[in-house]
């Protein structure tokens, strides 16, 4: 079910998939939303209660003034507090969400019982690419969905076609994120994050797309070897491996969670 909370007059929307098991906080990637974990919730069943926020500036959550790690992590802590969850939880993050997940574990180790990193590197150096051009070419709002999708082009449309939102005043439609917010969020990821990755000691799993350009094999190997208690689940695919091999992704996560 979808719920929301207010953080400094800003709405944070989240999905609570229910279940009687332990909570699993699931943080989606950039240009995505909490609904991305619907398949994982179905796979895990009642064994785990997946709580999946639309992170700031995504989905049904409001835009924020900034997109720093501190901001994303503060939202996650506020959500756990809102739900009254004081015991350590398992935290899963993919891409942007993976960066936020291991920074959450570093800043609040007492809140994180286990960490699942899905194809997220520790060395982030965004360079000009087709993704930047795509984001700059998007329209945030338009009178019709057709106009939004046309501006997105065939590549961008596949990311937003299923997630367009009607404007509150009924005058048109909007993307599930603002393009400039995404550019700001990407830039805020820039840097060396080794200290944060190595700062926590809870059991961890690195799910890796073996053809991922976002997480080169050498970096993935180093992340596993340098962080004690970290296991490795390689899957055939690139950075979008959770969507290219959802069965493999779900099984890898389920197998790891069963060991806790």
Please give a structural write-up.
The mean pLDDT is 96. The chain has helices at 38-44, 69-82, 96-107, 130-137, 145-160, 179-188, 194-198, 217-226, 241-244, 246-257; strands spanning 2-7, 10-16, 22-27, 48-53, 89-94, 112-118, 123-124, 141-142, 165-166, 173-174, 191-192, 204-209, 230-235. By secondary structure, the chain is α/β, with parallel strands linked by helices. The chain is globular, with a radius of gyration of 18 Å.
Q: Report the order of strands and helices.
A: EEEHEHEHEEHEHEEHEHEHEHH
> Please, what is the average pLDDT?
96
Range of strand content: 15-25%
Using the alpha-carbon principal axes, give the shape.
globular
The description of the largest β-sheet is: 8 strands, mixed
Write out the strand line-up for the largest beta sheet, numbering strands in chain order: 1-2-4-3-5-6-12-13
CATH superfamily of the largest domain: Alpha/Beta hydrolase fold, catalytic domain
Q: Structural class, please?
A: alpha/beta
Question: How would the blueprint of this fold be written?
Answer:
Elements: E1 2-7, E2 10-16, E3 22-27, H1 38-44, E4 48-53, H2 69-82, E5 89-94, H3 96-107, E6 112-118, E7 123-124, H4 130-137, E8 141-142, H5 145-160, E9 165-166, E10 173-174, H6 179-188, E11 191-192, H7 194-198, E12 204-209, H8 217-226, E13 230-235, H9 241-244, H10 246-257
Parallel strand pairs: 3-4, 3-5, 5-6, 6-12, 12-13
Antiparallel strand pairs: 1-2, 2-4, 7-11, 8-10, 9-10
Helix pairs in contact: 1-10, 2-3, 4-6
């Amino acid at each position: 079910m979808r719920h929301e909370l207010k953080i400094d007059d800003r709405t944070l929307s989240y999905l609570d998939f229910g279940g009687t098991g332990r909570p699993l906080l699931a943080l989606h990637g950039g240009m995505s939303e909490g609904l991305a974990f619907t398949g994982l919730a179905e796979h895990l069943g009642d064994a785990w209660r997946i709580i999946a926020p639309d992170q700031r500036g995504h989905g049904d959550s409001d835009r924020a003034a900034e997109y720093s790690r501190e901001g994303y992590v503060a939202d996650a802590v506020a959500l756990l507090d809102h739900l009254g969850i004081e015991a350590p939880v398992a935290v899963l993050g993919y891409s942007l969400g993976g960066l936020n997940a291991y920074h959450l574990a570093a800043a609040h180790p007492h809140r994180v019982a286990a960490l699942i990193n899905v194809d997220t590197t520790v060395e982030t150096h965004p360079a000009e690419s087709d993704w930047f051009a795509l984001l700059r070419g998007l329209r945030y709002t338009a009178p019709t969905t057709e106009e939004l999708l046309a501006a997105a082009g065939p590549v961008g449309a596949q990311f937003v076609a299923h997630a367009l939102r009607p404007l509150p005043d009924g005058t048109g439609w909007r993307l599930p994120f603002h393009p400039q917010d995404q550019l700001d969020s990407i830039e805020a990821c820039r840097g060396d994050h080794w200290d944060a990755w190595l700062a926590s000691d809870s059991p961890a799993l690195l799910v890796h797309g073996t053809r991922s350009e976002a997480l080169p094999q050498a970096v993935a190997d180093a992340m596993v070897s340098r962080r004690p208690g970290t296991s490795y689940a390689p899957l055939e695919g690139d950075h979008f491996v959770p969507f290219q091999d959802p069965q493999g992704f779900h099984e890898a996560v389920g197998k790891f969670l069963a060991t806790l």
